[in-house]
Amino acid sequence: MKLLEYPDRDMMMMDLASTLAGELVAALTHEDRATLMVPGGTTPGPIFDALCAADLDWSRVNVLLSDERWVHERHPRSNTRLLAERLLVGRAAGAHLLPMYAPAAQPELVLGQMEQVIRPYLPISVGLLGMGGDMHTASLFPGADKLDQALAEDAPTLVPMRIDGQPDTRVTLSARVLREALSLHVVITGQDKRDALERAQGLPTAQAPIAAVLENAVVHWAA
pTM score, two decimals? Predict the structure, then answer.
């Protein structure tokens, strides 16, 4: 793991957007297409605002969420909705979104079909993750019902996940898929998450799922 510290959040967001754009351009120089993986939540919003203006051939970029709530794409809690509003606009409107939701009562009913769509575009070319104070990343939450499956070396591409106390079923990329990204970045803010990151490095992955993807990651932090 490599840790980069920034003097303020605005500088970090702009620098990270530039880094992601540069890595996408590099990937497109030797591949027909590139896959960009991004998280949901509020933290990456400013990164998306800058990244969407990047001067690159977005028509050759596939965009994939690290995880999604099993809610309609127009639902207020939908990560896909966030992408539509903050990333897939401007120049980036030409990118191809790989869906992490399909109209079915439960993800298990359509997971196989969704994996068939995503697998041809793996491994991830450029990946961005966040981390919660509980040391989760994507929807790999401590105590989640299928965390062991998602952390396994032979894990499938997608894993449905249910977390006590949270209203929505989720679908997440497995730790294996996240680790196999050709370039992986993690963005965190605040001293509490910096402290959580340090704790995670000494804990089993079942207690600190972020630890499962840190080995080759670049972590970007600002207070």
Answer: 0.97
